[in-house]
Amino acid sequence: MLTLVLKNRLRAGRWLLLAMLGLLHGLMLLDIGSVWAHPLLLAHLGLFLLWQPLWRGEQEVGRGGLIFIALAAAVALFWLNWWIIAFWLTGLFGIVGARVFAFHDRGTRLLYLSVMAYLLSALLLWVVPHLFGAPSPAGEGHFETGHLMMWYLLPVLLLGMAALPVRDETAESAQTVDFIYSLLLFMLLALVVLGSLAFMFLAKLDYLEALLRTLLLMGLILLALGGLWNPRQGFGGLQVMFSRYLLNIGTPFEGWLTQLAEAAQREPDAASYLRRATVLLADFPWLAGVFWQSPDGAGQIGQSSNHEVRVQEGELRLTVYASQSLSPTVLLHIHLLAQLVGYFYQAKQREQRLRDITHLQAVYETGARLTHDLKNMLQSLLTLTAVAQGHEKKSQQLLQQQLPILSRRIGLTLGKLEQPQLESDTPLLSLAAWLDALRLRNRHQPIDWLLPDELPDQDIPAALFDCVVDNLLDNALRKRQTEPDIGIFVKIAAEPLCVTVCDSGDAIPEVIAANLLRRVVVSENGLGVGLYQSARWAEQQGCRLILTSNQDGKVCFELRCGSGMDAPARP
Length: 571
Description:
571 residues, alpha+beta, Heat Shock Protein 90, 3 domains, five-stranded mixed sheet, rod-shaped, disordered C terminus
């Protein structure tokens, strides 16, 4: 029941504020020597405890807070004087001023600006003259400036604040206070009061002239600071230095960010990185603990507390437990740090997905490439079977020559299937030996061979050349089934090493030729997977498979490799 009453009072914060100011106004009018001064001050402090934005009204005050409140009230009651009133008005001005921009409602802002104007007027035109024992700023008489303000203008201002269309404050908005803004406003108003005192006693001026000089001097100083805050003459300005100060909370922000980036580089996966990042986050002295929940699991470091901040960045949910109530500046830092942890975590997740995709791509490319190798080997085996079924005298000799080569290729294919790789560790073979094996496999096919007078003494990746040339010859031989009169020839050039396979058939349609070797294309005889995989593999091994000629009577593909085939393959 008590909690509900306190919440309702929080929602009626405007009326508490106006009642609190009304009691304070009565105290100042009756003078501190009146018998009603102490009861009014005690009632004023009680309303302030209900309105104040420092502790939540629905929560119990701890023992330390209770002792502090009791001591402050005792000092105010037993040593009540104009210095206490001036100090209290200055503190209220700082608290109220720090909350002006915490609300989005225009009426609420106008209310707090009006309260600031009331406190400033009461302090400078009533309390300070009593404090310094100065003569009235407008001369003698009942209707002097101070009396006019206190008896007529300021009560009208209080009534005007009561009539403002202001939305009711919620319990959360009632707790918004920026300590830095409050401290700056307190010090600014204290400088105005003490500066007026200094001008009065050092320059022998009356209070009004001293106050005007102090306000003029403070205005000039604020104008100069405003120019230095964001200058346009090349100087970085105070804003940069102040922002750098705000970014250093507990430990240097740059150092923490460096550790976070190093953790992202060292940790192998997203889960281990998240554990390391939360450990770094929990190292801040103003944090009691951190709880996280993600697709990779959940965990907690430290202890939970009543002051928690929940942040969600993608699939990552962070709950940060603070040791004490957090100011808006620290809340901004927490959201920034949580976003950084979330961004790095998402980057690690994408990195893991890329590794999985790369592995699947290796399996796919290896499987597609070896499928065509198996197809070519099965066709060779079919040809050998047909030869063996005949009763030619040289069939036994042909089988003895071809079967060991076929067995070796089958063994290499099975080895690749066991461990798929994007860059196949293919054994190297001399160009002359590879060419002899190629001509021997195709000795029964009507193929013309255009060879240089002397083959270079060079090692080549035999599996790559077998895959590419066998695919090209197979495509040309299948074209021959529909165009019986075409010729097929293989040409080898030495410098640079080029293997060209040509046929004299019809040109490849332009729609297919435009995407051939770059992606899978649909053709009459298949999907173009063999040539696409051959081109990809050639690129990985530092070679290029290109269509050099596409016209009727001359369709040529060329496998071109640079010098130094013993160098590592390009990725």
